[in-house]
Amino acid sequence: MLRPRRVDQSAGDQRRRTARHVCRGAIGQARIDTGNLEGASPSGGVFSFGTYTENHSAYKLIVGFRPLSLIGAEIAYMDFGHPGRSFSPGSTTSADVKMSGAAAFGMLYLPVPVVSVYAKAGLARLQATSNVSLFLPGVGTCQANNPNCAWFSRRSSATNTSLAAGAGAQVKLGAWALRAEYERFNVAGGNPGLASLAATWTF
Questions:
Q1: What are the 10-residue block averages of pLDDT along the chain, 203 residues in total?
Q2: 26 within some domain
Q3: Which residue of 81, 117, 168, 195 sits 20 to 30 Å from the alpha carbon of 59, by its own alpha carbon?
Q4: 3-state secondary structure the chain
Q5: Which domain, by its residues, includes 162?
């Protein structure tokens, strides 16, 4: 008597359980780091502000796909914030930088129990917009036709596409998870970073 053949569907079930879509929202602390900022006066003079480094609150939105237990992919939008700084070391100086952009990462999940540990690498396209203003009281008397000769200012914007990398860990709570991670980028002559805490929904 022939018995119906039983098909082992465990491998297919496992693949279906592993193939998951992920949505995340994250908040954190960004470290904005740029190259040399410069200000220019109407008379043609140029003042070097130097490098700009400042911390600011940040956020990001992420969607991802994890087809295998050890491999995944993510696309993210990040806003590093818009910090400003003023000081007067013999002059009146102010500068602010706004930085934001998008990134795509490949994910490698390590087989660690309890906590899911991962590393990520990919490409990021970030835009940095800076404003620099400086008044030098020691310039001297300005001519009548150029009353702002001691006032230096410049607005500039740079967009860079470069490598990005990061690492993190997450703890699952059913369909939800809590994730902490750090990412490093290369833009505007500097290396900004982003440390964040995210809530994750998997479906």
A1: 49 51 91 75 61 90 92 96 76 82 96 90 93 68 61 81 95 90 86 93 84
A2: yes
A3: 117
A4: CCCCCCCCCHHHHHHHHHCEEEEEEEEEEEEEEEEEEEEECCCCCEEEEEEEEEEEEEEEEEEEEECCCCEEEEEEEEEEECCEEEECCCCEEEEEEEEEEEEEEEEEEECCCCCEEEEEEEEEEEEEEEEEEEECHHHCCCCCCCCCCCEEEEEEEEEEEEEEEEEEEEEEECCEEEEEEEEECCECCECCEEEEEEEEEEC
A5: 21-136+148-202
